[in-house]
Amino acid sequence: EDPLLERLLCEKRHELDAQLTMLAARNTPAFRPASMLLYGAVAPQLLSDAHAILSNVKPGRARGETIRAPEVASAARGLIARYRAADARFAAGVEVRDDVSGLLVSSGKLMIASNTAMAKGRLDALLSHEVSVHLLTYFNGATQGLTIFRTGLARYEGVQEGLGVFAEWAVGGLTSSRLRLLAGRVVAVDAMIDGASFVDVYRRLTGDLGFGRKSAFDITARVFRSGGFAKDAIYLRGFRTVVDRLATGASLDAFWLGKIAPEHVDAVEELLLRGLLHAPVFVPEFLGRTDVRQRVAGLRAGLPLDRLLDPE
Q1: Whole-angstrom distance, CA of residue 206 vs CA of residue 167
Q2: Cβ neighbours of residue 215 under 8 Å, at least 6 residues apart?
Q3: With contact defined as beta carbons under 8 Å apart, do 285 and 86 qualify?
Q4: CA–CA dist 157, 259 (Å, integer)
Q5: Residue 113: beta bridge partners?
């Protein structure tokens, strides 16, 4: 009955169809084009950004204290408790598990690998990414009358991951190694789509782009899983989208309301005016920090991605 809602729901139905097609094509020659249908190819500008990062951003060294899964879980529960104090609907769970890798958000739950070991200096950045973006948009979406804003509108993943990387950068925790990793994934996806073999991509990462053997293997394995997975380019692409938006003076407010794509901002604003959606209940806590506000204000200068990092 409502043309706007019909369009949003139809877009999601088509995306679900494409996801099912991709899943059915795992480990067959059809998987690569199916994944490209969902995630697209690497645009020339994005590839140029990736090469600029890999040329101009040198790998950093991990420094400082190492913390493990119990400490990460404790810090995550503390951050979640602060959101819950504002509104009890931020009912996120935290689990330390043997069957996940790193940190992973699924619906309203943060799962932490039991073998996690990370630099303590990265903790704030990772929790800002996982809790203050992924969990926050899930619970904001859950407060809306339309549950699709909790599960995600079509094509939401790119900017959702971009917001996560933006959160890491905003709190001063986006390291040179992390940024180079995201750039390396873009180059690997582009090469895979262009027909390069697993060995070709691995050798390019180690021989031409300065990655260590383990990092190069991990990047290549992610990109070639199931027959060629194009998703790993969306992290840097999404970050570029967020940075460009802020550089023009635009707001990120609509993106906290739920899991949406950039092309849905106008639709969200219309639904807000019509009373079918309401403003976000939760706003990322890091946005209120003085240093974060200063960093975000600096984006108005339009710096390229390879010049955004604080000195390490």
Answers
A1: 29
A2: 181, 184, 205
A3: no
A4: 8
A5: 97
Confidence of residue 310 (pLDDT cuts 50, 70, 90): low
What is the pTM (predicted TM-score) of this model?
Answer: 0.93
Sign of CA dihedral 101, 219, 171, 65: positive
Angle between helices 157-170 and 234-247 (to 10 degrees): 70
CB 89 within 8 A of CB 134: no
| Residue position matching structure tokens 């991709």 | 22
- Distance of alpha carbon 248 from alpha carbon 310, whole angstroms: 22
Total length of the chain: 312
CB distance 152 to 160 below 8 Å: yes
List the beta bridge partners of residue 118.
67
Q: How far is CA 7 from the centre of its chain?
A: 25
Strand partners, 105: 110
Query: Which residues contact residue 147 at a Cβ distance below 8 angstroms, ignoring those fewer than 6 apart?
Result: 141
Contacts 24+ apart (CB under 8 A), 214-222: 215/181, 215/184, 216/184, 219/181, 219/184, 219/185, 219/188, 220/188, 222/185
pLDDT band for position 97 (50/70/90)?
Answer: very high
- Per the structure block, which two tokens stand in for 246? 């802020």
Q: Using CA atoms, how far apart are residues 290 and 309, in angstroms rounded to an integer?
A: 17
Measure the CA–CA gap between 176 and 62, rounded to whole angstroms: 10
74's enclosing H/E stretch is: helix 69-86
Tokens 């209120």 correspond to what residue? 288
Question: Which residues contact residue 79 at a Cβ distance below 8 angstroms, ignoring those fewer than 6 apart?
Answer: 127, 131, 132, 285
Per-residue model confidence as pLDDT tens digits over 15-58: 999 999 999 999 999 999 999 999 999 999 999 999 999 999 98
